[in-house]
Amino acid sequence: MKKWLIWCLTVLAMVCLIPGIALNAKAADFIYTYCFVCTQQRNCEILGYIKADSTKHRIHIKCLVCGRENSIIYGNLSYHTGGTETPTCITGKTCALCGAKYGILGHDWGAWTPNGNGTHTGSCTRCSEVKTASCTGGTATCRAKAVCEVCGGEYGEKDPNNHALVQHAAKAPTCTEKGWNAYETCSRCDHTTYAELPALNHDFVQHAAKAPTCTEKGWNAYETCSRCDYTTYAEQPALNHALVNHNAKAPTCTEIGWNAYKTCSRCDYTTYAELPALNHDLVNHDAQAPTCTEIGWNAYKTCSRCDYTTYAELPALNHDYQAVTVEPTCETDGYTVFTCSRCKDSYTADPTDKLGHQFGAWSPNGTGSQSADCLRQGCAHTGSTDCRKFTFRTAEGETLTFCPVCGQAENAVQLEMIEAATAWPLSGSLSAEDVTARTNGEYLSVAFETAGSLTRPTGRVRLALPAGLLEGKTLVRIAPDGTQTEMPFETKRGKIILTLDFVNSELPVMLFRLVPQTAAL
Ligand SMILES: [Zn+2]
Ligand SMILES: [Zn+2]
Ligand SMILES: [Zn+2]
Ligand SMILES: [Zn+2]
Ligand SMILES: [Zn+2]
Ligand SMILES: [Zn+2]
Ligand SMILES: [Zn+2]
Ligand SMILES: [Zn+2]
Predict the structure, then answer these.
(1) Measured between alpha carbons, how far is 437 from 30 in angstroms, rounded to an integer?
(2) Which ligand is closest in space to the CA of residue 192?
């Protein structure tokens, strides 16, 4: 606001100083307009008019309130007006308010004619004034001179630098194609700033060859360009696998298997897939204890698929036989009973023959038979057999008939048992313990018996008798036919020992006579 006020005061001061201002005294003419001092519409007194240009003038006013003077353009009141003159090409009317000349018609030149030398000439249609002036306007180009805007004729020289430029974008050179910087050409002439940029040529990079494999392509050695996609690369296709077929193997309980598979003879390609071992399909079996005769086993497992087993045979225990021996008796055989302590199985073995009765001395029963008690402890058997009697001729017209087992003599004294008699074989076989030697003081009979029956030695027998038996006597053998021969004997340690030859004996009994030495003499 302050600046604006200072500007207004300055303008007012300058207006007041302009010389020749016609402040025509037209007092008492007023206009109602804005006073920038009072800052509102005021009645202002018109003090005079000042030419502004060929059609207007400014109005010099003074505010009736604050007295401030000003010079303004004010509507139709600002146009030149009045005057009586007739305007011509070069003269006009005189403004009644500001005194300025106005309304001059000016020449009406009509058509201008080019003169071919850079000028044109025209004449006024109103006042016949002729005028020559330099051609003007238009623009010379590289191809054409300028055309005068007034007369339409060419004039001046072509402008070799005024091209109709066309801009061309730059193009960078590539490895194989030339390029250029941005350049201009002229659409009219052959002007150009084009400058070729040569092709760069490839920036080769060497690449090593790679042999193809079964699954990956390869290539020969090749070149590429570090700048562009130039390449001499030529792919060598993958070889594909050289497949070899392998048979399947089913897995077993304990060994892995596989399906049929392929491998490559060139690389380690394989479709092998291991099938794990099945593991046993175990079946439990109860234990069975072994017995004496049958094997057993602990609880064990088998596989339903294979022959796997944890079976372990427990051997049969075998019988635990305890032996009980039954001793033979006179009439029953002996044996041993083996009984198993576990299963009570038993059998009989080791038989021993019955002992037979151990008869003591046989004694006559008086009825042609004889008897003897068994001496074995626990046996109360009394045996009885028929007597077997022998008859010997003992002298002319005399015989002796007797049983050598029980000693019963028909016409002589009973022959009594000589307990101390013993015998043993020199040859042949003999139940020598069964010797039975009997005497009645006159005769001596010798025989062998078992269980009351006579037996017969098959060879020669030695017989021992108490020495007292033959004290003061000689021994004479009496053959069944009565032949009598002296029987030699030895005396040893209180016994007499004689040798009996049963090989050449008719009978299983021998008879001797005990002959007193005196009688023999
Ligand atoms: Zn004129
Ligand atoms: Zn011209
Ligand atoms: Zn041009
Ligand atoms: Zn390249
Ligand atoms: Zn392969
Ligand atoms: Zn199995
Ligand atoms: Zn048993
Ligand atoms: Zn008995």
Answers:
(1) 223
(2) 3
Contact 420, 494 (CB under 8 A): no
> What's the confidence (pLDDT) of residue 297?
96
Q: What residues does each domain of the chain span?
A: 24-84, 113-155, 165-197, 204-236, 243-275, 282-314, 321-352, 363-370+384-520
- Calculate how far, in angstroms, residue 134's C-alpha sits from the geometric centre of ligand 2: 6
Looking at residue 471, its pLDDT comes to 86
The strand pairing partners of 258, in sequence order, are 249, 274
- Ligand that comes closest to the CA of residue 199: 4
pLDDT of residue 6: 59
Q: Which CATH architecture has domain 363-370+384-520?
A: Sandwich (2.60)
Q: What is the pLDDT of residue 180?
A: 96
Neighbours of ion ligand 3 (CB under 5 A): 142, 163, 186, 188-189, 191
Measured CA distances, 127 to 12, 86, 90 (Å): 44, 14, 10
Task: Give one word for 426, left, alpha or beta, with left for phi > 0 and alpha for psi -120 to 50.
Answer: alpha
* Spacing, Cα 165 to ligand 3 middle (Å): 7
**How far is it, in rounded angstroms, from Cα 259 to Cα 264?**
16
State in Å: Cα 87 to ligand 2 middle.
28
CA of 107 to the centre of ligand 1 (A): 3
Give me the interface pTM, i.e. the ipTM.
0.45
The answer to whether the beta carbons of residues 302 and 308 sit under 8 Å apart is: yes
pLDDT in the model for residue 217: 94
Across the chain, which has 521 residues, the per-10-residue mean pLDDT values are 56 45 54 91 92 92 93 90 90 91 89 92 90 93 93 93 94 94 94 95 95 94 94 94 96 95 94 94 96 95 94 94 94 94 93 90 89 91 93 89 93 91 81 81 92 86 91 90 90 91 86 80 44
Task: Decide if 440 contacts 346 (C-beta within 8 A).
Answer: no
> What's the CA-to-centroid distance between 377 and ligand 8, angstroms?
8
Q: Ligand 1 mean position to 132 CA, how many Å? A: 14
Q: How far apart are CA 348 and CA 338, in angstroms?
A: 6
Centre of ligand 4 to C-alpha 177, Å, is 10
SS3 state at 212: coil
pLDDT at 504: 80
Give the Å distance between the CA of 143 and the centre of ligand 2: 20
